[in-house]
């Protein structure tokens, strides 16, 4: 999952980490994308603004190695993640969470 706020796309995070964010940290537009590597998901979401017609906003992207599952509120993006991977347990960034 990736957050976009005030024109900035933030680094990708696992759904469990995104689910554990505070209400303030959840603000913005969220994107749920699947890719082999986090940097590919990041490049895909960043490209949605730069070349909006070149990158898919739903499904497999023909322009890059990513599958776009959803965009919208934090809740909408988290629901898309759960629809894809199953139930998500919120996790705060700690040593335990990073070991998951």
Task: Tell me what the structure shows.
With 100 residues, this protein is an alpha+beta fold. Helices cover 35% and strands 22% of the residues. The protein has helices at 15-19, 38-50, 74-85, 95-99, and strands at 2-5, 8-9, 29-35, 59-60, 66-72. Strands 2-1-3-5-4 form a five-stranded antiparallel beta sheet.
Could you give the topology of this structure?
Blueprint: E1 2-5, E2 8-9, H1 15-19, E3 29-35, H2 38-50, E4 59-60, E5 66-72, H3 74-85, H4 95-99
Antiparallel strand pairs: 1-2, 1-3, 3-5, 4-5
Low-confidence stretches: none
The Rg value, from CA coordinates, equals 13 Å
* Straight-line N-to-C gap: 16 Å
Strand residues, percent: 15-25%
Structural class: alpha+beta
Helical fraction equals: 25-40%
Molecular shape: globular
Query: How many beta-strand segments?
Result: 5
Largest sheet: 5 strands, antiparallel
Mean pLDDT: 88
Count of helical regions: 4
Secondary-structure element string: EEHEHEEHH
Give, in spatial order, the strands making up the sheet with the most strands. 2-1-3-5-4
